[in-house]
Amino acid sequence: MSQTMDLVDLSDLLGLVAGQDKRAFKSLYSATSAKLFGITLRILKDRDLASEALQETYIKVWQNASRYDEGKSRPITWLVALARNTAIDSLRRREPARMGGDNDEDALERVADPQFGRVDPAHRQTLKGCLEELDEVQRRCVILAYCEGYSRAELGKATGKPEATVKTWLRRGLLRLKSCMDRE
Amino acid sequence: MTDTFTPDEERQTLAGELVLGTLDALERQRADRLLESDPRFAAEVESWRGRLSPLDEAVAPVTVPDNVWIRIEAGIKGLEAQAEALGAQAEPGQVLLFDQMRRRVAFWRRSALAGGAIAACLAALVVSSPPTFLLQPLGLTPEVVRGQQFVAVVNRDGILPALLVQVDAAAGTIEVRSVSAERPTDKSLEVWYLEDDQPVPVSLGLVDATADVTRLASSRQDVLKGRNPLIAVTLEPLGGSPVEGPTGPIVYSGKLIPVE
């Protein structure tokens, strides 16, 4: 998988897909779908729902590839953003709020243990270091929201605090994270 | 800890929470608008995506079921075919009178799009079965169509949202789902029902611009009686058509098709 990622230039493929090139679209799908399926599955926790979200994601890719701007974001980041948005929207449509937050620390640990060598290791270390600087509750909220798609209401349930408090934690946490990462 | 943020912090956290996915519907709408109209905000959103992207690395790839690609391909074929037909028939911004709409409907009925091929393509996109009240006008019985589905889909070249319209038998609702990320914010999308010998299209309601899925009641007495039931979606002023019947361009129309 990671080899495939390295072999093809995703930016070039997205450019071709913007011109409605179906072969390029298939190549893009082959190179990225397993990763994006992992992303939608992490959020939705259900293979059928995650498959549906994946399908919707690639239809959006087909329709919106011309909006991808190489100068502004890495292609995989753009694709992941589409997949996460789609999966989170799907989650919000159902959302009997989940309890818990069992494997959030796990996600943080794995920040330092990449299976894909695509992100600059220094950047990874910076994020890890800055997440560790946050209050624990802020860190948990940021990670559960990003990785597992938790809403404010769900975070409130998981932490036993009102949504308004969660909102403040998230915002304070994000600002601290930004100022820490910009400093590094 | 105080709750006050400077305007710059407000922007930053709005961008950050957009990426996290924790905004409520109203905030999300505001953020989506800014994303389209404000390059600085868009750049901030990109920065957030970049900052948090190492968290995606922990995700291991998972083998995708084969049928996902088949469905994507089918969906795209359906979108292309419908966009072609609509492109030949409707221009954005064009005001349609009911007579024109009826002619367009006639075109749809003649065209191959109303046939089984496209329906088969689209079947992959939805999972629902048609309620009896929709089957009767088609001269079908539930036995004949068991396992079949009603579906419609539309794309407007990325200018307007792609929509999937599906009929849910159990819930008795018409579900309109936005597939594309974009939605018009200064207009409303209104859903209409048409059938043969009906004087004026019946409004089923507005597509909720803040939600991905809008559920509309379909159990009205004045619809689903005649032959050739059809759904059309028009672009209307905010809040819907000011008159009885549509005033805006059709951005979508499709026969309610029972799918094999």
From TrEMBL, chain A:
Q: Residue ranges of the RNA polymerase sigma factor 70 region 4 type domain?
A: 126-177
Q: Which InterPro entries match?
A: RNA_pol_sigma-70-like, RNA_pol_sigma-70_dom, RNA_pol_sigma70_r2, RNA_pol_sigma70_r4_t2, RNA_pol_sigma_r2, RNA_pol_sigma_r3/r4-like, WH-like_DNA-bd_sf
Molecular functions per Gene Ontology = DNA binding; sigma factor activity
Organism domain of life = Bacteria
Establish whether keyword Cell wall biogenesis/degradation is in the entry.
no
Matches recorded under Gene3D superfamilies: 1.10.1740.10, Winged helix-like DNA-binding domain superfamily/Winged helix DNA-binding domain
Write down the Pfam families for this protein, in alphabetical order: Sigma70_r2 (PF04542), Sigma70_r4_2 (PF08281)
Limits of the RNA polymerase sigma-70 region domain: 28-94
- Tagged with keyword Kinase: no
Listed GO biological process terms: DNA-templated transcription initiation
Which of UniProt's keywords are assigned here?
Answer: Sigma factor, Transcription, Transcription regulation
Question: What is the similarity comment for this entry?
Answer: Belongs to the sigma-70 factor family. ECF subfamily.
What protein name is recorded for this chain?
Sigma-70 family RNA polymerase sigma factor
Q: What is the lineage of its organism?
A: Bacteria, Pseudomonadati, Pseudomonadota, Alphaproteobacteria, Hyphomicrobiales
Automatic annotation (TrEMBL), chain B:
Task: Quote the InterPro entries the UniProt record gives.
Answer: Anti-sigma-K/W_factor, RskA_C
User: What are the recorded GO MF terms, alphabetically?
Assistant: sigma factor antagonist activity
Q: Which GO terms describe its biological process?
A: regulation of translation
Q: Which residues cross the membrane?
A: 107-127
The residue ranges of the Anti-sigma K factor RskA C-terminal domain are 117-250
Gene Ontology cellular component annotations, sorted alphabetically? plasma membrane
For this UniProt record, the keywords arranged alphabetically read as follows:
Membrane, Transmembrane, Transmembrane helix
Which protein, by its recorded name, is this?
Answer: Anti-sigma factor
What is the organism field in this record? Roseibium limicola
